[in-house]
Write a structure and sequence with these properties.
mainly beta, two-stranded antiparallel ribbon, 3 helices, globular
Length: 255
């Protein structure tokens, strides 16, 4: 996918720990509000429009579920109508303590990968074709390392929840975070690499979404070669509403 190659340097972020704890903290719950066991509970679902120079090029459809403390983050990316019908999909499964159970990625044009725990570290298996043999690559990274792959913006939403849960607290009705940015590290399977990024809440700010002005929480994300801005809705469970990537003339908006 052309979008993959063009966006790759910027679409690398980080997330660490379990989604259940992020959603729990972001939703403002206490111990008695912990998710019940039993059938899956939906944390968030929907889609993002991915626009380059104001033209929609991709749509990401996502679903985040919890069941018995395990979090399942599924996403599918499809080309906009009129373009080459190539799609990608991913499934990330993590435990309540943030340990990776399994990550899978594949694309319709062929090629897939899987990341699994391997003793105390991680093992990635990669195939360039649908029926090809798998090559293996080990990473000396703990099993709690975040999987944060290219192009999947729902994983960036979970990153924001992780940051708010670990570095911020509510005081007097206001959200207050530790001074300075928080730093995280992650594995990016499609790039077969790891990276460190910084994230920092700057406060509420007005921004336009589909022509309407909204006041949302602004979070800055940065790394060695990128600077992104994310906006979260603190009135609706801290859902990710918008992402701006100025260097790539790209905007991501929740549908």
């Amino acid at each position: 996918m052309k979008f993959d190659r063009g966006m790759r340097r910027g679409m690398i972020f980080v997330l660490a720990s379990s989604l259940s704890s992020y959603a729990f903290a972001a939703h403002g719950g206490d111990k008695k509000d912990k998710p019940k066991t039993g059938g899956p509970q939906t944390v968030d679902s929907g889609s993002f429009s991915i626009l380059v120079k104001d033209q929609r090029v991709l749509t990401e459809t996502f679903h985040i579920d919890q069941q018995n403390g395990v979090s399942l983050i599924k996403s599918q990316i499809k080309e906009a109508p009129g373009q080459e019908p190539v799609s990608q999909k991913s499934t990330l499964e993590i435990t309540p303590t943030g340990e990776l159970l399994r990550y899978e990625w594949s694309q319709s044009s062929g090629g897939s990968l899987t990341v699994l725990p391997n003793n105390d570290f991680l093992l990635e298996k990669i195939s360039a074709t649908a029926n090809g043999k798998f090559a293996e690559q080990s990473f000396l990274m703990p099993t709690t390392t975040v999987i944060l792959d290219n192009n999947f913006f729902v994983q960036r939403e979970v990153l924001a929840w992780r940051y708010l849960a670990s570095d911020c607290k509510t005081a007097g009705g206001n959200l207050q975070c530790q001074q300075g940015p928080a730093e995280f590290g992650a594995l990016v399977p499609q790039d077969r690499t790891s990276i460190r990024v910084r994230i920092e809440l700057t406060g509420k700010e007005k921004t336009k979404i589909r022509g309407a002005e909204r006041e949302l929480l602004r979070v800055n994300l940065s790394g060695e070669n990128f600077n992104w801005t994310m906006w979260l809705d603190d009135q609706d469970q801290f859902k990710l509403m918008k992402v701006e990537i100025p260097a790539d003339n790209t905007e991501v908006v929740r549908d």
